Amino acid sequence: MNANQSIWAFTLTLTSLAGGWDWSTRKIPNWLTVPAFFTGIFVRTWIAGWRGTLSSLEGAGLALLLLLPLVLMRGLGAGDWKLMGAVGAFLGPVMTLFVLVSSILVSGLMAVISMLRAHKVVSTLRNLWVLLRGFMVFGFRKNPEISLDNPGLLKLPFGVAVAIGTLGCFLAARWSW
After folding, report:
1. Rounded-to-integer distance, Cα 41 and Cα 7, Å
2. pTM (2 decimals)?
């Protein structure tokens, strides 16, 4: 197994475990994400020296920075945020962007399916309008009615979307189309 395959093996294992855990509990535990973050840095350092360390920190920092506003507004859980930081530590900045975009697309598809299955299309679209209008008027502030803290809203296991997005990026990288 070469270095690239090792990194993908670690990342796919991490995201599969996190996705399964998130599916069953709707949480991603620190005991999984925090050691994975440091393992990602260690593995990339071991493989590529200081350049690997720098790439690992750039990937983790990019994921954490891009998702921080969503965490602060309570639109994304801290476990999801830390999972993407760990993925960034393994994959570096460029592939982390691909995984993040793929995960967001998968999450959007999951949201549409959940919305249709729960017959909450109208209320979801109304909440989306309220959220967008609030952002235009007040800027990026959290809305207590539209957050993870509201038990009446549909919540998605973003860890599952990350696992599927990571697998999709791995397959695309493996068999470049």
Report:
1. 11
2. 0.84
